[in-house]
Amino acid sequence: MTEVHETETGARARTRRAIVEAAVRELAHDAATSLGQIADAAGVGRTTLHRYFPDRAALLDAVGSETVARLTEAHARARLDDGDARTALLRLCPEYLLLGDLLTLFFTGVVPDTVLDEGGAAPLAALVARGHREGSIDRELDVDWVVGVVWAQLYLAWATLREGQAARHDIVPMLVRTVDKAVAP
């Protein structure tokens, strides 16, 4: 009995994840994408989608939760507490770039600012403030300004990648160099 329950739970988790991932992809391409289009992209029926997410708001909440989880993972991979804050910031930029279509959802407002504040802006602002205290980030640049510079450069990097104008291995060094030159004391 336990094995069957675990299999059902695993299948439910995979289906839910497929729906959320499809929502991220589809909403990044068109914020007005219908739930039917998301269900099709996830390879499930609309009834199945509604079993997991009764309405668009519930699905967007799940996308917001996924956003916070992926931002948290990016922070962990970047090892924000290792070394000076500027070096950690430069490790964080490529990790944020890996968020892919979630970046589009930030930039287009599909994911509300409150989600971004909870998962991304607060740790990023704390990192910049630490950089100010230790002198690794230019103290003349306001914390909010530096956070804005980072998001602006990520927007440029992601838009360039998404439009196929350059490869990731070309974009990352330019992104890191630009942010480094912008925030260095």
TrEMBL record:
A matching Pfam family: TetR_N
Keywords linked to the UniProt accession: DNA-binding, Transcription, Transcription regulation
DNA-binding region: 34-53
Domain of life: Bacteria
InterPro entries reported for this sequence: Homeodomain-like_sf, HTH-type_TetR-like_transc_reg, HTH_TetR
PANTHER family associated with the record: HTH-TYPE TRANSCRIPTIONAL REGULATOR BETI (PTHR30055:SF234), HTH-TYPE TRANSCRIPTIONAL REGULATOR RUTR (PTHR30055)
Protein's recorded name: TetR/AcrR family transcriptional regulator
